[in-house]
């Protein structure tokens, strides 16, 4: 995830970032076990689902969206080759077929992936969906005027590095073949065992070339999912979705599509959203949010109300907040100094600064504590919950700083309870006990992002965070620790500037694996090995707590997105 804070918002608003939604419409979806509020807990077809969000659903074009697992609201309109398994918890981290009959068939070295489309797929106008439409949808995502989506395809597809999209080069990409209307074949530069995860991104949405209106396509993208766009106001500030009459549950076992209509209203203050969901009056009784968490004060109030507490969805998204070091800058070039800070950290105070244990879980590993990432427990610098200042002082003495030292910690001024002043102050207080004086440098969000992602300006000591494009160790470890991904002139995310040949080689070896369970174990082992270098200090993993209206039923929150899946909810 190239920009974690942005992606997390998009998974939340679309999914994020962020994500983070049966027969023809005349046939009702099968009932499943319901979880949610209301006297009759069984989900029924009908009604209007209202979505109350802070951030507008901008760039509602599959080429421009950067989502995880196809997003949340976007996945009501856009189907992809594969998608996330729409189940609670860890079961929801699996990738499953969507438009395709399976999750993909690799050749022996995972450089060629073949997919076959299901039969009977149709757009909202009743015309058939073809493999050529998926190829065209991917190709248009390369157009500069439609930028914003996940960047992997440019790196992974053979000959795609300089492709400028079909508006400038209508020959298309030779790396994508469509031998017939139901078959699509991808040729990759190198083995990629996790290609099925990538195929969940909205860039794999079919787009009929005849209906492509370029930058205006977002106003009425042609639906392949259970809902179509009937109104898009102010670049996604308000979206109204109604049923796609040609969507068939026979080809789509995942999306339940219970409501008749989905009304997405954005640009709202987060406190207003939580107040409206709490009161649950009128249309708000059948409302959810896909991007607004309960804050510490709001959660305390909700926890004291039995009815409200029963309407809080709890989720975990693969995300780590951490301290980053730049080893090119003194004194952080000395591993003993980095180790000293690792021992000095008081994670209990950091968790409290992030909102308490209900909203944050302490972290000693860089990978999130979920099986799909390959989570392997370790703590190379064990200091208990409150830190070990004595051990930190010992290491500082060995590093030539018997009287302590003074350092500057860069952080964001955004009140996000992640890289913000509250967290920075908790770090400052903990390190003071170890004889380390910390001066705080708070920057506005844009300045902070520009500074920490530029090798030329990257500070020596700063707060950072990273979130998953999909639930695997690959998009978590590679961007941060693969030396070949260091960008000297542009946006760089390898903050520790690590370029270790053995680490790079292991990343390549894991990428060849198509057995994702085996790959996960290897990612976990690699995380443990990299952790010994003390290039980061993992602090905590966030927990999402979100209210929903009293008439909302069938709550499904997977560990892929960590937020309520709008494709599953019912309001009757």
What does this entry look like structurally?
- By secondary structure, the protein is of the alpha+beta class.
- Helix content is 23%, strand content 17%.
- It has 15 helices and 19 strands.
- The chain has helices spanning 4-13, 131-140, 152-156, 195-198, 270-279, 296-303, 306-309, 335-344, 347-353, 389-398, 421-432, 445-452, 474-481, 501-511, 516-531; strands at 48-52, 82-84, 95-97, 105-106, 112-116, 176-180, 183-187, 227-233, 238-243, 261-265, 287-288, 312-315, 319-325, 360-362, 405-412, 436-443, 461-467, 536-542, 544-547.
- The strands form 6 sheets. It has a 5-stranded mixed beta sheet, with no helix packed on it. A 4-stranded antiparallel beta sheet has the order 4-5-7-6, with helices on one face.
- Strand 8 and strand 9 (238-243) form a beta hairpin.
- Helix 9 (347-353) runs antiparallel to helix 11 (421-432).
- The longest helix has 16 residues, at 516-531.
- The protein is globular and about 75 Å long.
- Residues 1-34 have low confidence and may be disordered.
């Amino acid at each position: 995830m190239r920009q974690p804070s942005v992606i997390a918002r998009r998974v939340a608003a679309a999914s994020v970032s962020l994500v983070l939604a049966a027969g023809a419409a005349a046939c009702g979806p099968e009932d499943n076990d319901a979880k949610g509020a209301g006297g009759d807990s069984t989900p029924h077809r009908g009604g209007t689902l209202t979505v109350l969000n802070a951030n507008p659903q901008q760039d509602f074009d599959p080429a421009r969206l950067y989502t995880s697992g196809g997003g949340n609201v976007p996945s009501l309109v856009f189907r992809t080759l594969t998608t996330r398994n729409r189940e609670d918890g860890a079961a929801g981290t699996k990738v499953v077929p969507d438009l395709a009959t399976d999750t993909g068939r690799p050749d022996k070295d995972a450089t060629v992936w073949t997919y076959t489309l299901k039969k009977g797929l149709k757009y909202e106008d009743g015309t058939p969906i073809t493999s050529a439409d998926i190829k065209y949808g991917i190709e248009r995502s390369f157009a500069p005027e439609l930028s914003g989506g996940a960047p992997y395809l440019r790196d992974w597809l053979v000959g795609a590095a300089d492709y400028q999209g079909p508006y400038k080069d209508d020959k298309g990409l030779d790396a994508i073949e469509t031998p017939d209307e139901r078959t699509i074949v991808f040729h990759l530069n190198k083995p990629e065992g996790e290609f099925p995860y990538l195929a969940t991104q909205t860039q794999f949405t079919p787009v009929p070339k005849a209906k492509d209106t370029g930058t205006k396509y977002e106003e009425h993208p042609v639906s392949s999912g259970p809902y179509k766009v009937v109104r898009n106001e102010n670049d996604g500030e308000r979206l109204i979705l109604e049923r796609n009459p040609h969507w068939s549950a026979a080809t789509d076992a995942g999306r339940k599509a219970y409501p008749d209509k989905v009304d997405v209203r954005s640009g709202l203050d987060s406190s207003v959203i939580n107040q409206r969901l709490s009161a649950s009056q009128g249309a708000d009784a059948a409302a959810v949010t896909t991007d607004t968490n309960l804050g510490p004060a709001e959660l305390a109030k909700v926890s004291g109300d039995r009815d409200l507490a029963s309407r809080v969805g709890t989720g975990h998204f693969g995300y780590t907040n951490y301290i980053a070091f730049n080893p090119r800058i003194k004194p952080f070039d000395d591993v003993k100094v980095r180790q000293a800070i690792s021992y000095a950290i008081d994670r209990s105070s950091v968790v409290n600064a992030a909102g308490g244990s209900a909203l944050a879980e302490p972290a000693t590993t860089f990978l999130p504590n979920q099986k799909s990432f390959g989570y392997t427990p370790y703590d190379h610098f064990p200091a208990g919950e409150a830190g070990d200042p004595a051990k930190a002082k010992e290491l500082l003495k060995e590093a030539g700083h018997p009287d302590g030292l003074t350092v500057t910690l860069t952080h964001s001024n955004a009140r996000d309870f992640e890289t913000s002043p509250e967290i920075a102050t908790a770090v400052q207080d903990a390190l003071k006990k170890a004889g380390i004086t910390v001066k705080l440098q708070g920057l506005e969000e844009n300045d902070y992002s520009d500074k920490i992602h530029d090798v030329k300006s990257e500070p020596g000591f700063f707060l950072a965070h990273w979130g998953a494009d999909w639930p695997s160790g690959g998009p978590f470890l590679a961007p941060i620790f693969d030396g070949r991904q260091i960008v000297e002139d542009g946006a760089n995310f390898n903050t520790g500037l690590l370029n270790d040949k053995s680490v790079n080689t292991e990343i390549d070896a894991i990428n060849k694996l198509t057995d994702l369970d085996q790959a996960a174990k290897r990612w976990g082992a690699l995380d443990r090995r990299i952790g010994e270098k003390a290039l980061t200090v993992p602090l905590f993993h966030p927990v999402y707590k979100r209210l929903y209206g009293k008439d909302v039923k069938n709550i499904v929150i997977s560990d892929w997105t960590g937020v309520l899946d709008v494709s599953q909810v019912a309001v009757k």
